[in-house]
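Can't paste images in this forum, so I'm doing it all in text. The chain is below; anyone willing to post the predicted structure tokens underneath?
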Amino acid sequence: MASRGRCGGASAHEDEPRRDEQAEQQAPAPRGPILPPPPPVDYGVFMQGLVQAMQTQTHTQAALQAQLEAQVE
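Text version of the structure:
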């Protein structure tokens, strides 16, 4: 049983470098200019915009609901 472990372990180790080499060969070369990292996110501004969008959606939904109820009556 020990020989099986060595055999299986050796074949597994032999496969690993091959997988790495194949991954390197298959990886596409980057094209075009390398872009700088994006600016840091101001989460306060982001949250204000998100809240404003949610409030707008709520008001729009309420207005549409009122319009629908007015048409039914």
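The chain has one domain: 2-25+42-72. The CA atoms of residues 63 and 69 lie 10 Å apart.
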